Amino acid sequence: MAYENFIPTVWNEAIQRELEGSYVFVEDCNRQFEGDVKKKGDSVRILGVGKPTIKKLERSGASGDIDGPEELEDSSVTMYIKQISYFNYMVGDVDRAQAVGGLMDTLSKETSEALADEVDTYVAGFATDAAVEALYTSPVKVIAGESGADGKNVLDVLDEAIQKLYEHDVKNSTEVIVTVSPRFYTLFKRAYIARDTDNTEFLKNGRVAKYGNVTVKMSNNVAKTDEGATDNIMIRTKRAIAFAQPLTHTEAYRPEKKFADAVKGFILYDAQIVRPREICNINVKYA
Question: What is the pTM of this model?
Fold first, then answer.
């Protein structure tokens, strides 16, 4: 291939590196099972069990016998690796000859950003999964002002969502993330403009703020329903969704009948809700 510095392994690593830096939704998934899957169709059984019943031992009896063992509820789920997203494009010889240096780096970054958007959109879509509880029975209008007839204050909405997770036994020491749309964030910023948190470190990779113990991030990939009128904003712990991306593949070739060089490749991935009680859909509208 005419791209002298094209080495598939190097490009795979570059794309993977750029992907990790571009993910917003994926960044907060549980990825500990990634090494257990290698190819399309593979699956991993993610074990989960219910909490044991804690009982008191009555010491008034002579023997101090305890009850027999209880059978804990099995909440295991299986994650199948079925998603493939690919790219295939070419650069004409004339265009390449006229291009200023850095063409390969630019193409790698653009490819990674496009792939990251695709995968993030997939993970964001789990907000509307049947296993995920919606905060409201129907979307609630959010506003920056005080809650009333015109709508509900955006901070009140976040408080209710956080409370929902706490009621599902999420500890207040557990890291919670809410990934909001730009429109929701604008209202959030107006409502909480007086915050004194140093947000310097939260401007990277989509992070925008802290709200109590909750990290607030922004993404254009928040799931939408009702023809775009409803934002389905995901609030969750990092244990709620498992994600695996076991394979990144690229190859270069010369298209027949074209004076051009081409690159094609794909990533293999999938995700699965594994702790549905640790995720909530904040379903809101703005008008």
Answer: 0.82
